[in-house]
Amino acid sequence: MRRWRSFRFGLAVAALLAASPARADACALTLVLAMDASASVDAEEFAMQRTGLAQALVDPEVMDAILSVGGIQAFAFEWSGRNQQVAIADWRFLDSGLEIAAFASQISKHERGFDDFPTALGHALGYASVAMQRAPRRCERQVVDVSGDGVNNESFPPRTAYAAFPYGEVTVNGLVIAGEQPNPVIYYRENVIRGPGAFVEVALNYADYGNAMRRKLLREIFGASIAGLALPPAIR
Question: How far is residue 120's CA from residue 106's CA, in Å, rounded to a whole number?
Answer without folding.
Answer: 24
